[in-house]
Amino acid sequence: MHYIEVHTFINQILSVFYRIGFWTREDEKSPIKLRIKWFYVIYHSMVVMSAGMASLQNENKDDSILLIETALVNAVLTVKLWLTMWKQRKICELLEQICSFTVRDRETFEFVNGKLKKFINLIKIFIWIVVSLATCEVMAPFVGEKKLFFNIALPFDWKKNDFNYLLANAYICSEIILACLSILMTIVLWYIMFNCSLRYQVLGIHIKKMGSRLGEESKGTLDKKNVFREDLSALIKDCLLTRKLVCDIESFCSTIFFLEIGTSGLCICGSIYCLAFDVSEKTVGRMIHFSSLLYNVTGIFITTNFGNEIMLKSNRLSYYLFESDWIDQPQSTKMMIIILAECLQQPHTIVIAKLYPLTLETFVRILNFSYSTFNILKSFRM
């Protein structure tokens, strides 16, 4: 047996949560820590209200579209921030239950490690891109003309003097940093979903190799048929456990995924609109619109892709079952195989709010909705 643990890089992300006060250890719980959590949530929700109020007050339709998009993106990030802070125990349980498991042979162990390594490398690239874009957005207001890229509603006039201008930019910069920290929770959820699809892959490999016991010591008196039956019984339990764990992550992520699916189409449309009609008229502004478009498209694509992978990998299990050495087994064992085959007949599809299957088909529907909405906005502009 070989043991797969939560990846070191994910543990480093969790350590960031502890250091900045998102999470607290059992011996550190105090009213001060609770106030810090509430401060983060209330502070980040302020940008949603500021952008929303500014969109209502702004007479320029183009600026209003940008502000509505900003409010929607940050509203989802605020919910994600709340989820990160108040669901700490559940997140840790999901990580331990889903991302820590055993594999039976060295070959499968190396296969899993290879998949995890590729995933972590992609995540590091994603983080590097997010940090680079965030740094540019933070530094941009201090280069060139004194102007806010987000004309959000503020309780003071930022044009009055340099101090007010710096204060407004400091507020926007702090909100950008907090938004980037919220995105770390998205990465943790992606990691958990990736491990769900990986567990189905491992389950398929184990089903295919039933009775072989590669890499294990001999059981002595057990013959090959008894070993096959014993493996079959263990795999039935593993299959039921995996389905239960995927249902747990479906239940846990249902709210946040529903919000992402519901708002991503509008946000993608808003970004394309701002780029198509050059709303900002400046290179830095275009970069901000492009980064927003990249974040929304990438985020919803990766989420739906992992849901799609879970469906595809679970759908393959019945094929792996009949690739195993089941023909020469006794009738009682064949009955167990038939029962397992019935359980594996339907693929496991994650359905959000009983409306949206988490598959690439949903991603395509979101893009089509964005395109249709963009055409409507374009017709109003003309």
TrEMBL record:
Q: List the Pfam families hit by this protein, alphabetically.
A: 7tm_6 (PF02949)
Which terms in the GO cellular component ontology are assigned? plasma membrane
| Locations listed in the record | Cell membrane; Membrane
Q: Does the keyword Membrane apply?
A: yes
Sequence intervals crossing the membrane: 38-58, 64-83, 125-143, 163-192
Membrane topology type, per the record? Multi-pass membrane protein
Principal subcellular localisation of the protein: membrane
The UniProt keywords, alphabetically, are:
Membrane, Olfaction, Receptor, Sensory transduction, Transducer, Transmembrane, Transmembrane helix
One biological process term from GO is:
signal transduction
Write out the GO MF terms: odorant binding; olfactory receptor activity
Q: Which residues form a coiled coil?
A: none
- InterPro entries attached to this UniProt entry: 7tm6_olfct_rcpt
- Say yes or no: keyword Protease present: no
**Homology family:** Belongs to the insect chemoreceptor superfamily. Heteromeric odorant receptor channel (TC 1.A.69) family. Or2a subfamily.
Q: How does it assemble?
A: Interacts with Orco. Complexes exist early in the endomembrane system in olfactory sensory neurons (OSNs), coupling these complexes to the conserved ciliary trafficking pathway.
Q: What does this protein do?
A: Odorant receptor which mediates acceptance or avoidance behavior, depending on its substrates. The odorant receptor repertoire encodes a large collection of odor stimuli that vary widely in identity, intensity, and duration. May form a complex with Orco to form odorant-sensing units, providing sensitive and prolonged odorant signaling and calcium permeability.
Protein name in the entry: Odorant receptor
Task: Report the source organism.
Answer: Bradysia odoriphaga
State the organism's lineage.
Answer: Eukaryota, Metazoa, Ecdysozoa, Arthropoda, Hexapoda
